[in-house]
Amino acid sequence: MKAGTEPSPTADHEDQARRVPRWLVVLAALVLAGVVVGVIVCGYLARPGWIGVSGKKFWDYLELLIVPAALAFGVYWLNRRQDERERIAEEARRNRELDVENQRAQDEALQAYLDQVGQMLHDRQRPLRQSQEEDEERSLARAQTLTVLPRLDGRRKGTVVRFLYESRLIGGLKSLKGSKSMQRVGCIVNLRDADLTGTSLSGAVLNGVELRGTTLSNANLRGAALDTADLRGADLSGANLSRANLVGAALSGLGSTGLPLYPPVDRTRYADLSYANLKGAILVGADLTGAHLDRADLTGADLVHPRAGGPSEQERRLAEARGLILSREVTANLRLEIMAASLEGATMPDGQKYEDWLKSRGEDGENGGDVG
User: Fold this and answer.
1) Are 116 and 137 in contact (CB under 8 A)?
2) Which of 135, 240, 306, 352 has the fewest CB within 10 Å, making it most exposed?
3) How far is the C-alpha of 316 from the C-alpha of 339, rounded, in Å?
4) Omega of the bond prior to 263 within 30 degrees of 0, cis?
5) Is there a contact between 84 and 92 (Cβ–Cβ < 8 Å)?
6) Pairing, β 173-175 against β 182-184
7) Per-residue DSSP letters for 255-289?
8) Across 33-50, average pLDDT
């Protein structure tokens, strides 16, 4: 902590000088009360009726102690309340200082990271964009990215992702010269297993971005443009993807990287969209094979092609079993093979396995049988 934020010796001395008299008052009051009570009790026991005027007994004099005792207790209570207020104020001040220090540390870490990657991008001898997959420049850039992300809050994590995307380091799309068609940009900084929890990317343009195997739980991707984005194996549980454009996005299993990894990792994990907010999301052509959509909200989502009447009764039943939220306004044709792949081997709410649950309703798990 900086010297300017440390309490001065003079302030400490003044605090001590202000607190001591209160404790002395309380102590003196208690001692005085003890002496008076002791004298009365001892004297009364030795010579009953020895003190006071005629007709006055011990309890009469004891009433005289109520006022000083009440005063002593009042001083003590006020002192305790004052100490409590000072303690709360001190904790609030420390929390403010820690928050300011934390924000400053995050800003410094983010700036240092941007400077380091920026230097690698503009290195004349070995520019990062021209590096090959096995070059150490890519490994260094990945290591720096994975190191800085856990130290940042959601807003700053969003800044990192935008910087990498706009620098064409994590995929993207670019226009071909003399043509209206788009070409995918190769990924240079692999963000697999990156901690992007709570990342704020609302309204971000990230078409063609590669975020395979990243942790995007509780991320804010509301209204983001994610056309043809590679989100295979990503953890999007609890993420806000309402009104996001996910046309042609890959949200299926991660698959193998072909690289020997130690410790071993799950190479086949599927994208996790459980509890995700997908209201009004555009998922036309998106690959959702095996994706976990437990209790995801797909109200108004467009998965394939708009059609009148909303989903079929069988699609509704399958969705209900998975906790999906579907309404009459859903403009999606939920492909049964996707749902079946997601539910294979799952335990239904009544304790049955998915395959047994289908059979108990006279439905064919292979072809999705028609529901009359």
Assistant:
1) no
2) 306
3) 11
4) yes
5) no
6) antiparallel
7) ---SS--SS---TTPPPB-TT-B-TT-B-TT-B-T
8) 60
Q: Which of 14, 24, 15 is nearest to 87 (CA)?
A: 15
User: Model pTM?
Assistant: 0.65
* Cβ atoms within 10 Å, residue 361: 11
- pLDDT value of position 169: 94
Please state, as a whole number, how many other Cβ atoms lie within 10 Å of the Cβ of residue 111: 10
pLDDT score of 341 more than 50 = no
What integer pLDDT is reported at residue 128 of this predicted model?
Answer: 92
Q: Quick check: 339 pLDDT over 80? A: no
Cα 321 versus chain centre, distance: 28
List residues bridging with 77 in a β-sheet: none
Is 67 a residue whose pLDDT tops 90? no
Torsion angle (degrees, nearest 10) of CA 107, 108, 111, 115:
-170
Residue 241 exposure: Cα atoms within 13 Å on the Cβ side: 34
Backbone angles phi, psi at 126, to 5 degrees: -135, 70
SS3 30: helix
Residue 170 pLDDT grade (very low, low, confident, very high; cuts 50, 70, 90): very high
278-298: pLDDT as tens digits:
888 888 878 887 788 888 887
The span from the CA of 131 to the CA of 257, in Å, is 19
CA 372 from chain centre, in angstroms, equals: 45
SS3 175: strand
228: left (phi over 0), alpha (psi -120 to 50) or beta: left
User: Which residue did the predictor score with more confidence, 182 or 267?
Assistant: 182
Lowest-confidence segment of 57-61, 105-109, 160-164, 301-305 by average pLDDT: 57-61
* Separation between Cα atoms, residue 232 and residue 349, nearest integer Å: 28
